[in-house]
Amino acid sequence: MIRVLLADDHSILRDGLRRLIDGAGDMVVVAEAGDGREAIHKAGEFLPDVAVVDISMPGPDGLEVVERIRAAHPKTAILVLTMHEEEQYVVRALGAGAGGYITKRAAADQLLKGIRRVHEGGRYLSEVAAEALARRIGKGPSGGSALDALSTREIQVLRSLALGKRNREIAESYGISVKTVDTYRFRLLKKLGLRNNAELARFAIQNRIVET
Question: Are 100 and 124 in contact (CB under 8 A)?
């Protein structure tokens, strides 16, 4: 029996996913989490075989959760289940240690296939995620966007600023100092050629780093 942790801040969605997974016959949900911090804690408490993780969660985001769980519990495979279809997120989630990536538009049976595949040590991408990854590879090293010049932490700080979070909130989410957040903000402005937080927020929306 595959033991699964569900991490998503939408309780109604988690209820539906739990029924789907528990009804599959070969897997069971052993724990649920409504934010990134709880997901990291419950991964350590329940040691699931597979963690199904959303990217957009309060506290540490999904990319951070993937990285921390993989570092602390390498036997736990991770499948990202998210609304984000952008190639940036696919590439960065896989780079952080996720074994699979499925968008929420995918059919329900793909989630079950994905859980089984990553549990076996394989990789699983939904059709949309595979297309996004192929598109990114097809661009080659010189065909990337301005986002490619940003580190994952810079993307996380950019997203947080665009969501209106204060520097102290961002610092607490990622276990860094307020001064370090300021440093990341300065780097973002410099790399992107922008002047202030309003322009950072506009850039994040235009590049679908945040949902509108």
Answer: yes
